[in-house]
Amino acid sequence: MNATMSVLTVGWLNRFTRPPADVETIDGRHIWACTVLDRAYERAIQAEHMPKVRPGSGWNIGWTGVYPEPKQWSPERKAAARRQNLRRRLQRRFPLFAAELEERELERRAHYYDPHCIEAGMDMRPVNPSFRHNGGPPLDC
Fold first, then answer.
1. Helix and strand tally (H, E) in the chain?
2. 124, 126, 130 from 139: Cα distances, Å
3. DSSP assignment, residue 67?
4. Which of 1, 65, 98, 126 could pair covalently with 90 via S-S, beta carbons 3.0-4.6 A apart?
5. Which one, of 106, 93, 34, lies nearest residue 66 by Cα?
6. Is this model's pTM higher than 0.70 or not?
7. Which strands sit side by side in the sheet containing 59-66, from one edge to the other?
8. Percentages helix, strand, coil for the chain, rounded to the nearest 5?
């Protein structure tokens, strides 16, 4: 996934020391920061506005990509995709018994294919009441 925006910074690299006292900083560590809205102009902005720092002097040039939020499926779409994938796997391996095996699996793991359970975050495995979590030894041992 390509970043559409980026943040350029010049900051003090060594976390065990402080930057020189004669240098004015933004937050105690950085002397310059810029959000680039279009990456096509990133090099031009760097050349024109970024302060020149000598390599090995303790200053670091940083780049951070700003990525769009990932798109998430609705619980209904996710449940439908799970049922569709189950049906496809069963059709491929057991074509004569696919309908019956699909019905059994939907009964056995109804919470996994239910949009309401997916939305609540309880779709992977029901909580074991004796452990108060999804399995393994009790947490308060």
1. 4, 3
2. 19, 17, 11
3. P
4. 98
5. 34
6. no
7. 30-36, 5-12, 59-66
8. 35, 20, 45
User: For residue 50, what are its two tokens?
Assistant: 């970024």
Question: 29 near 63, Cβ under 8 Å?
Answer: no
CA distance 135 to 124: 12
pLDDT at 139: 45
User: By the 8 A CB rule, do 33 and 9 touch?
Assistant: yes
Q: Which two tokens stand for residue 114?
A: 């239910």
pLDDT digits (tens, 9 = 90+) for 82-127: 999 999 999 999 999 999 999 999 998 888 899 998 888 877 765 5
Rounded to whole angstroms, what are the CA distances from 26 to 6, 53, 88, 94, 133? 19, 16, 57, 65, 45
| 58 confidence band (pLDDT: 50, 70, 90) | confident
